[in-house]
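In the design runs reported in the main text, the only information available to the sequence generator was the tokenized backbone. The following block is the verbatim input for one such run; it is reproduced so that readers can re-run the procedure and compare outputs position by position.
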């Protein structure tokens, strides 16, 4: 599993989410957005409908009759009811080692010391796991830059 740590310093994770989700869908991925808090899930849902009046990002919240049909599903767990192969983690959690995702994007707010500390703990824990490739992405003026 490839886990990308996205250190959001120029825009909030919620603002970054639509562009990353659109790129993932355009690349042929099915996407699960993990938003563990109900208020956060509501904010994600609302933002994906309104972030750009000129675009459409098909999605819904988990728990409905048509979850399996959704290219992007918002859920409070990492249970990919839509068969997602890519997860975007909006909370401070990562999927377990038994997760079936080929890629996980872990978005965290660079202005939140607790979020940064949690990301560091996750990074350290993943470094000790076999079959996990962790990459760090820094948000810079010209876009995302991969760092070693």
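Verbatim output:
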């Amino acid at each position: 599993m490839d886990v990308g740590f996205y250190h959001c310093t120029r825009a909030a994770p919620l603002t970054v989410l639509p562009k990353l989700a659109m790129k993932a869908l355009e690349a042929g991925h099915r996407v699960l957005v993990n938003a563990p808090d109900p208020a956060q899930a509501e904010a994600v849902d609302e933002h994906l409908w309104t972030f750009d009046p000129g675009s459409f990002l098909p999605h819904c919240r988990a728990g409905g009759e048509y979850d399996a049909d959704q290219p992007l599903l918002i859920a409070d767990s990492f249970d990919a009811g839509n068969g997602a192969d890519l997860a975007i983690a909006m909370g401070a959690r990562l999927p377990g080692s038994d997760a079936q995702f080929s890629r996980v994007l872990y978005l965290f707010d660079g202005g939140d010391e607790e979020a940064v500390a949690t990301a560091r703990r996750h990074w350290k824990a993943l470094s000790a796991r076999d079959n996990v490739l962790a990459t760090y992405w820094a948000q810079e003026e010209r876009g995302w830059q991969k760092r070693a």
